[in-house]
Write a structure and sequence with these properties.
single chain, about 325 residues, 18 helices
């Protein structure tokens, strides 16, 4: 992958931002800049829209912009590219900004798992694959070929309810924590849920366990949200007894159960928007968003559960944006 040229690497944020603004003025409606909630403030300040991954992909689909700069990670730009027209170009500021969770379920691993499962259950009649939007286009296509679908953290509960009405078993990828938290909230018992570990015979499960399972969770996770612990929740309550602890559904089960509420990024933002002056929150999600919410709502007390930054999102910089938008 081509590296950022030296003259852009040494450029100040202010100079790089001005270059981006100049290109925005020159290109006008031909350029759309999208910024995910987890991006740094200098990047967000240049975005025409900010939001979650699918929300921004839908914004891209609804525009006539010829060039769409998506400040996010690879699967997000890929999703936007799927939804936009052939005449539109979607680019990442840093093409190496990937998502480790999405990479935890490759198409080869998933197809191998499906083949192994087909040896012990009737997969086409009994098992419905559902993938989190945080996955590759190949995994999304796999789910479509086998009658399944794609979900977000906002609609995962509704999608899982729908899936369980279609077939008796659910195969959820790639985030075991989101899938497990939502499945248990819908009434699934622990005895009905297993985890599939790739590259191990039957995902490290027995034939009996697979045949008894109603939910099979892929062994994947978000490294940002699995940094939070139940002990951190306890510490927050001890130091701030009247605080509300809100966490993302990608957190581990014990963290979700110890919190006052869990949901998507959009859900967390809505809780803050609906809060009353003086309310206190400790939030377990990516630090850029938590710090931004704290600045946007000075009448509230908002603190991070712990400092957990997404280094992949952080790869995108205003210098990268200035470079990819520079004239040939």
């Amino acid at each position: 992958m081509q590296e950022l040229p030296e003259n852009f690497r040494v450029m100040s944020d202010a100079e790089a931002a001005e270059r981006v603004r100049r290109r925005k003025r020159e290109l006008g409606a031909d350029l759309l800049i999208l910024g995910h909630h987890y991006q740094s403030d200098p990047v967000i300040e240049l975005a025409d829209h900010r939001g979650d991954s699918l929300e921004l992909a839908r914004v891209a689909a609804g525009t006539t912009a010829r060039l769409i700069l998506f400040a996010g990670v690879h699967f997000m730009a890929e999703t936007a590219d799927i939804l936009t027209g052939p005449e539109q170009i979607v680019i990442l500021p840093d093409a190496d900004a990937g998502c480790p969770m999405a990479d935890m379920a490759s198409i080869g691993e998933v197809e191998d798992a499906w083949k192994q499962l087909s040896d012990v259950i009737d997969v086409e009649r009994e098992l419905l694959p559902v993938t989190y939007v945080n996955s590759s286009a190949a995994i999304k296509a796999f789910c479509g070929r086998h009658g399944g679908c794609v979900c977000t953290s906002s609609n995962a509960s509704r999608i899982i309810d729908w899936a369980c009405k279609q077939r008796p078993r659910l195969f959820f990828m790639p985030d075991q924590h989101l899938g497990g938290n939502v499945a248990r909230a819908s009434g699934m018992k622990d005895s009905e849920v297993i985890v599939w570990k790739p590259y191990r015979p039957l995902g490290d499960n027995t034939v009996e366990a697979v045949q008894k399972a109603n939910v099979i969770l892929w062994d994947g996770h978000c490294h940002v949200h699995t940094r939070f612990t139940a002990e951190q929740v306890s510490d927050a309550r001890r130091m701030m007894p009247k605080t509300n602890v809100l966490v993302h559904l990608e957190c581990r089960r014990d963290v979700v159960e110890a919190s006052d509420g869990a949901g998507s990024t959009a859900w967390i933002i809505r809780q803050i928007e609906a809060a009353q002056p003086g309310d206190a929150f400790v939030i377990g999600t990516e630090i850029n968003l938590v710090e931004r919410l704290s600045r946007q709502y000075p009448g509230l007390s908002i603190a991070p559960l712990a400092l957990s930054r997404c280094p992949n999102m952080f790869r995108n910089s205003v210098q990268d944006m200035a470079w990819v938008l520079s004239e040939p």
